[in-house]
Amino acid sequence: MKQEYEGIRLENQLCFPLYACAKEIVRRYRKPLEELNLTYTQYIVMMVLWEFGGMTEGELGKKVCLDSGTLAPLLKRLEKQGFVERIRPDTNERKLMIELTEKGGALKEKALAVPAAMRGCVPLSEEEINLLRELLNKALLNMKIKE
Predict the structure, then answer these.
(1) Half-sphere exposure (Cβ direction) of 59: Cα atoms closer than 13 Å
(2) DSSP state of 39
(3) How far apart are alpha carbons 41 and 35 in whole angstroms?
(4) For residues 35 and 110, is the Cβ–Cβ distance under 8 A?
(5) Is the pTM for the entire model greater than 0.85?
(6) Is the Cβ–Cβ distance between 49 and 43 less than 8 Å?
C-alpha cells in the first residue's frame, strides 16, 4: 500500500481498538447486569447516583458523558422500574432532579457482585489495567478541556 494511505488503514487507527474493546466489554456486562435488570448505560448512571446521591439531570449527564437526548429516556425507564424519581423543584421547574428511590438504593447491594463477575474480563495484568485506565482518563479529560 502506498505511504499516503497508511493513515486510513484500520490497523493504524487508535479509535478502532478502543471502539471494539468497549463494545466487547459492554457485551460481557450483559449477563451480570441481567441480575439487576439494568443495561450497561443504566448501570453507570446508577453507579453515579449510588456514589454521589441525587443531582440534576444536567450534572448527571456530565458525569456519565451523555447528552439529554440519550439520558432522558434512560431515566424514564429507570423511573418506570422504580429505581429513581425525577422531580421538578418548585423553585426552578426547568431543572430536573434525579433521586434514588429506596428500591434503587437497595440495588446497590446486589451490584456488588458485578465487579467480581467482570474480573478477568480484560486479559491484562492489574498494573496494565491501571495504566490503561489512567491513560484513557487523561485523554478524556484533555478532550473535554479542549471543547
Answers:
(1) 12
(2) -
(3) 15
(4) yes
(5) yes
(6) no
